[in-house]
Amino acid sequence: MKARTQKFKSNAHESPPMFENKILNRLSQTHIATPIIIFFVYAIGLLWYTVAQTDIPIPTVVLVFFTGILGFTFMEYAVHRWVYHPPHGASEAYKKATYKMHGMHHDYPKDKKRLAMPPLVAIVIATSLLFLFELVLGQYSFSYLAGFVVGYALYLVVHYTVHMYAPPRNFLRALWVNHSIHHYSEDEVLFGVSQPLWDYVFGTLPRSDKDKRMAREIHR
Length: 220
Known about the structure:
- By secondary structure, the chain is mostly helical.
- It has helices at residues 22-27, 33-53, 58-82, 92-107, 119-137, 141-164, 173-184, 197-202, 209-219.
- It contains 9 helices and no strands.
């Protein structure tokens, strides 16, 4: 993915303005803590409502909650792979849209203000999902969505950490390795950020010798 050239004053890690309108551009940026706090609080509210206003047993609430987290991990993989990375032959309009959504992040991976979906957009999407899930899951939708948004918050924690901090010397180092390969070696593998589960399922683990060598180097 190639960045579009644009003149602007910035530090080395800051991406160029996404919109010419200053207000819109500011709304496209966020401190990473803002959406994380919002969605943990949102999840607590959903779980409280489930326990207080439905007759679902607590063990079932917990099970549905963790199912929601699992559901988010699949959504994370699917959107990253099939939406954010345009297929060959995609229209220029689609490529331009996905560049703003994700391609800019590949060109400026250290921009702290663009490591999360803008909170306003995320809240609109989460609210829309609540209505959708309620149509399908009924009273189970609240605990499922609680898990789903916690999954998103945890994804943000992982994504921010792997970009901003050095990898640890333990089993979590694999998350740094995987995301580094996706960013700096081959962007058609390793679409899972918070975990590699769906990369195993769909066979998008590193394929080339270059990727494998890079993984060995980072692991040292």
